[in-house]
Structures are given as C-alpha cells and as structure tokens.
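Incident review: delayed structure delivery

Summary: a single-chain prediction request sat in the queue longer than the usual turnaround. Root cause was a stuck worker, restarted by the on-call engineer. No data loss occurred. The affected request and its eventual output are reproduced below so the record is complete for anyone auditing the incident later.

Affected input:
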Amino acid sequence: MACFILSRKKRRKFRDKHVYTSYQNGNQVLLILPDGREKLIKHHIYGLNVTFYGKENILKINEPENQIHDISVVFLGNNATAVVKNNVYCQLSSGCEFFIDKSSYVNDGGKFWLCEDGAKIIIGKDCAISWNVEFMGVDHHTILNDKGKVCNYPQTIEIRDHVWIGSGVKISKGVIVAENNIIGMGSIVTKSFLETNCIIAGNPAKIVKKNINWNVDAISKYIAEHPKAK
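Output delivered after worker restart:
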C-alpha cells in the first residue's frame, strides 16, 4: 500500500478528532507504565490518532497517558510494531519495526517513514531530535535496474545512544549514526557515520569536527553546575 502524505494542518485536524479505528483483528494499543508494565488501552486518548488497516499490529506509547500529544500512527499492513513518543508521525507497512527509547525525545514535526514491508527505524537512549526531522526508511517509489529488477528495498536506520539531531535534518535508509554525535541543522545524511564524538553537517553530510561531546542543558545551566567547563 502506498504512503499517505498528509499536510501538518490535516494531521492536526485528525489529532484534534482523537480518532481510533479498528481495535479488532488482533491490533493493540499499549501504554508503557513507569515500572515497565504494559496497560492495554481501549478508550480514546486526546492527542493520539492511530489507524489500523491490517491485522496483528501493536502500538506502544512511552509517555504518561495525561501527557500524550501529537502522536499519529498509520499501520498500513500486518504484524508491525511501533514504540513511540510524543510529536511522532509514522506509517508502517507489514512486518515493520519502529522503536524510540523512553529516555529520548522528539520535538514538533518528527516524521518516520516505514511504508514498505520489513522497514526498521531504531532510536537509542538519550537522543535529542529537534524540530521537523525526517527519517526516510524507504524511497516511497520503486527503482529498477537495467535488468528490470527492484534495487531499492528498505534498509534499517539506526541512531545509537546520545545523538543530537538538529532541526530540519533528513536521514536516508541504511544509515547508522554512532554514539555521542551531533548532526547539524538542515543536514542531509545519506551514509553511515560509525566514528563517535563528532559533529556531522552539510549536504551531503560529512564530519566537520571531532573529539566533541554534548549535554542537553543550556550553556548557562551547565556552567553553573560544572564551573570548570567555562
């Protein structure tokens, strides 16, 4: 099934209606509780829109129920699993896997495309994903080689622990980003970066600085707590 490209306005409209469709056919929505237990949800939650077109799909939400907002998930096929947080829009085809660790966060406009069978996107621990970041686990259309064979199947995107992704970044399928890296605003990431503690930036993205690390706090707060860092 093809991807549905919805405008932000339309996605917000769907969210405001807080619509669910089809909890039948083995589809489930689960809330991950602070102690790690999972609670089956069968009632409407404002700020969550999930649509099931297939069977045996599982959506797990890694946010407190009273703090859920701007989550929109479309299951296009069967037997897919998504573990999501706030500010996520994603589409999954059959057999897809989407995971964001509970210690990571996504700002407004995060889009995650897994609308080909078997696509996978994994976001590790302590990651900071800024505004309007897009993860392209698929190409949306078919590319054929000179023998008429499909040559652009989906490939896994893996963002390892403690990666800061700046606003407007786009990440292509098959990309792995190693720990403690920063991806600069507006970068287009089309290849893997397995070296740690780097700043990656540009179109196409490349390493522009090495031997760095980062902290989620603002500079003033960090220096107040770590005076020797000034």
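Verification: The helical segments are 8-17, 219-225.
Action items: add queue-age alerting; document worker restart procedure.
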